[in-house]
Each structure stands twice: as C-alpha cells, then as structure tokens.
Amino acid sequence: MIYDKNDILFHVGPRALDAGRSYQRQGRVRRYENGGNSISAEVKGSERRPYSQDIKITSIATGRTTIRSVCSCPVGEGCKHVAAVLLEGLTRKSTVNASAKPDVPVETEESQTGKAIAPELPARLGSWLNALEEACQLGSEEYPKAQRQRIVYVLAPQTRHDGGVPRLELDIQTTRLLKDGSLADNARPYDARNALQSPSPAKYLRPSDFRIFRKIMSARGRYDPYNSPFADDEGLELLEDILATGRARWLGVDGPALSLGPARPGRIVWDLGDGAEMRPRLDVGEGLLALNAAPPVYVDAEDGLIGAIDLGLAAKLAFGLVGAPPVPVEHAALLAQRMAQKLPGLAALAPPTPAPPVLFKEPPRFVLRLMRGQLPTANSASPYYSYGREEPTEPVGLARVVFRYGPVDVEVTEPNETLTRLHDGGLIKIRRNRRAEGAALKMLHANGFVEARKMRPRVPNQHAPDFLPDEATEFAWRPLSRPAAPGKTRVEHRGRPGFSDPLARCPRRCGRPYSRELRDRLARARTRRQN
Asked: How many folded domains does the chain comprise?
C-alpha cells in the first residue's frame, strides 16, 4: 500500500488536509487497522461518538494511486477525518522504516519472489493522473458505489396568509440512500450557498446539483435567499432540471417521487369568500392541486406528476396575476375599470362586478359570548422567565362582546364604520350604530364588568378586548342571567364540553363546579324570575 502526502492532498483538498493534520497531531485517531490495501479507523470529531472510516488504496502498474474513502460524518468522504487517518498511516510507516522516502519504490511481496517490479511515476505525475481521474468522476452524474449520501429536492405548497393560491416552494434536503433503495427519514436541510462558496464542497454533489444551485441563487437574489426560486422567468426550466435528477419528492424525502407531466390548460376564476373579498383561483381539473409559479403548475400526487398550467399568458405575467391580493367587493368595479384602461389585454381576466349589496337598517343586538381562556396567573409578578420555561397560566372565565347586525356578527375591535359581508349568496351592507353599541358597553360596565387587560397582567392579545367581572365572588356572573329587553341582549356560551349552562360552573373560579347548595339556590331564584 503506497501513497504519499500528494495523494492525500489531491483526495481531500488543502483545507481538509490542514484540519486532518491537526486532528492527527492531537491524537484523535482512536482506532487504526491496516488491512493491506484497506484501512479501517475511527476518529474523534465534534460529535459524542467517533466517526468511522473505510479507506481503500489501489496502486496499479502505471504508478497511479487511487484512494477511495467513506466516512460516517456529514461530509461522507474525502473529509478531514479521512485525512487524519491517512496521515496516521504515514506516521506509523515512517516509524517502522525511518529511512523510507516517498519517491523511492518500496519492494512488494511480488518483488521478493523474484518477479519484476513495475516502474512507478514520480509523485507529481502520479498526482496529476489522480487529478484527471477525480475530474472524470466529479463530471459524471453516476454515484460511486461507496457513496450513499444524496441531495433531495422537496417540493411543497407555501400557504398564503390571505388565502390566495399557494406558491410552489423548494426545500433542499440531504440524507442517505439505504440498502433497499429508499431514503433515510432523518434528513436535514442543505444550504446551496455552501456548495457554491466552499473551496472543497461535499463529494456527493453531482454536476446537476451545482447547475441547479446556481439557478436557485440567481432566482432568489443575493439579498433575499428565501424567496421562491420558481417566480423567475426561468422557473419552469429550473423545475425541469430538478425533476431530471430523479431526486425530486413531494412534501418530504419520504414522499412520492415526482416527474414531469404534460402541460394542461387552465383558467382563472374569482371566488367570493367570507369577508366579502374576491380571490383568484386556478381551475385545472378535479383532483389536481394548482400552485402559483412562473408559469403556474399542477401537482398530481397519486401519479407523481407535476407540470405547467397553460393560461395563454407569459410565465411572469401569469405568476403576477394569480398572485393577486384579495379584492374587496366594493372595489371590484373600480379595479375592473382600471385594468381595462391600463391593461386592455387582461380586461377579460378582471374580477367580475357583483350585484349591489342590500342595506341592513335594523339596530344591532348585544351579544355576550361566555368562554374560558388561559391567562397568566394573577399572582405572577415578573413577566420574565428562564429559558425553556413557560409562564404559568390558569383557566379564567371571559365575556366577549359582539354586536349582531342581522346575520353578521361584528366584534368590538372592528375599526370600520361600514361593512360589506356575504350572506346566502348575496351581499349585505351594514352601517354601524355607534350610539347603540356604546349604550350596550355602558350597561356592561354598570353590571361590574371591566376589560380583561385592566384586571389581569400580560393578557394575551386574543383576549385583550374580552371582559372580566370586577368581583372575585361566585355571584359576579349572575347579572348575565337576568332577563333583558326582548331582541336587545343575548348571552351565548362557547367553551369546552360541560359548559352548556353559563351558570352551571363559575368561570371566575377557573371553571370549578358550584356547590350543590349554591346550585339549588340559583335554580330556585331562576324559577322565581321566570314565573
């Protein structure tokens, strides 16, 4: 087994060689077994358990020395751990034979039997040939048999917070190929910038990976590395390159493999949803998931296909149109008018103008929704807690104010004076009655209820507008059970199972049941009021 430092340098690169030299000098090579043409070793790295290495060294008649290595570290091969093992071998060899020189041929077992020793090239020529061989391997899409690490391109939808058409998103993962041909589920993210910026990138990367990485970085831009790479004009070309690797998966590394499907015709449909807002939707056929990209794509998860949706538009234009924000119905007519003026070719794709809304004129109905929420404990003094510990909370009864205008509930935090909402396929318009709403809030305050944020420390935002009784007694919620004027006040209970009757449990006492005597007293009082 003949190799020198030049062979190590070519196999692992200068940075890994320097790091391996430090590891070898620090005595991190914990196990070293020389099997002639192979080395089995273990090196203590940054993890708790040492990494294991399997190295094969082959010398042929032309004088070339070929090194093949596999390491259990994330790099996988040609790493600093392999360099440390190879340097350890040279150190042990020089200890046994201090007079040996790298360029002087060492007699093999064949030479001792009288057979002719094959001539060897100088170290510089041998390293040059090794470099050519390595370049051939790196330029091939085929993986060496010993290389099990893989780059996997995971495609998934990116949900929009406004409910629009999801975008096609890419997540690059790295994992190992198992013996049965499946991928290990303990994948981890891989940053494409590492491969493009590192002088010695991972050995398991193929030429197609570098081409894909460069296109991703070009599409995302230097200052927005997490932007969708499929929003560029070359989005479809990038998708085709990813699918050509055979390593594209849907939703996860254990998801179905994806291949390129045929282009399908589609159309843009505007749907009227809750909140009286119109959102674009891609209609591409039943059972297919439509995602926004440049151009938009469909996904057939059952058949493992992903392909372009033909809208008859340029890719970037289709991406922008499908990605439109929600359009309030009161602005739909004006938007269609402006699109006809500025973009006459897209006038047919503007949102349709719905029928005029019906004005609702009746006064609101005051509604209290009783619920139980988790609030910070009343006796917690400091808002700061040690890392890994959550602030202690307790269940507390709350009352939420809602103003009911016909079929529409308007919460007290709603800032708009005029609202347009969808109901039974049509639109209704509401002009809020601030005088009636203010009178209802005064009545609530007069019954001893105060905003939760004024009663308890650090109330979460979702409960900041809710109300609490200003008394900590079991009778604090009794005013809510008194009959009010018909059609003006309503008490509703929305909470966990077992809270169907708002007086069956005391919300202010964290949901604990009333005593039997107190329940009987409340029941008798309620019967007298009804009679």
From this structure: 4
